[in-house]
Amino acid sequence: MLDRCISDASPGRGFNLREGKGFTLIEGGSRSKARDSKRISDMRQLMSAQEMYYGSQDVYMPFTPSSPDFMPVEISDGVTTFIKVPTDPGGGAVVACDHASGIPAYTYCALDNDGEPQKYCYYARLENAIINKGGCTDLAPCPYMTVNHVGTFYKPAKPSDLDDCASGAQ
Questions:
Q1: What is the pLDDT of residue 21?
Q2: How far apart are CA 109 and CA 170, in angstroms?
Q3: How far apart are CA 76 and CA 82, in angstroms?
Q4: Is 6 a residue whose pLDDT tops 50?
Q5: What is the mean predicted confidence (pLDDT) over 3-16?
Q6: Contacts by 156-164, CB closer than 8 A, 24 or more apart
Q7: DSSP 136
Q8: Is the pLDDT of residue 31 over 90?
Q9: Of 35, 33, 7, 135, which Cα lies nearest the Cα of 157?
């Protein structure tokens, strides 16, 4: 196949490195990094929307999930919609944010902040764990990103509560 790829090179045509509809490992890595970049951007937009809600209401938007850790549909004060909550770029069905099954579930999640209006927590599981940031290393990678009332953090496990969400590597 390499011989054919090289022989297919011609001025203006480039190389045809594959004939099938699959993708290479390099492309797969690029795609997962692009999805993670989108997740990080979406999480930061959610944080900005919560801050706008806070500016309007002097509390963060209350969220009591009907199922553990599901996300609200939007961040709105009833007059202004600050953001429609984006869906994870990985696509697929909405799944519970309980990752106890060991099956990676790439979706956006929120923790219940009912009764604690000065706090909130959204988090996402990244496909490419963060290393070389704070306490995140090759031996202890951080596959979770949280945004909350304190800032942005990377964690080795999903946050257990609102205070845990507000700690980790920055």
A1: 61
A2: 19
A3: 6
A4: no
A5: 41
A6: 158/97, 158/99, 158/109, 158/123, 158/125, 159/111, 159/121, 159/123, 161/111, 162/111, 162/113, 162/116, 162/119, 162/120, 162/121, 163/119
A7: B
A8: no
A9: 135
User: Where do runs of H (alpha helix) occur along the chain?
Assistant: 2-7, 25-57, 162-165
Overall residue count recorded for the chain in this entry: 170
Identify the band that residue 19 occupies on the pLDDT scale cut at 50, 70 and 90: low
Residues 154, 136: Cα–Cα separation, whole Å:
8
Q: At 155, which amino acid appears?
A: K
Q: What is the largest CA-CA distance in the chain?
A: 68
Rounded Cα–Cα distance for residues 115 and 62 (Å): 8
How many other CB atoms are there within 10 angstroms of residue 91's CB atom? Answer: 8
Residue 148 token pair: 């909350």
pTM of the predicted model over 0.85 = no
Residue by residue, DSSP assigns 113-156 as -TT-TT--EEEEEEEEEE-SBTTB-SSS-EEEEEEESS-EEEES
Closest CA to 128 of 10, 23, 22, 28: 28
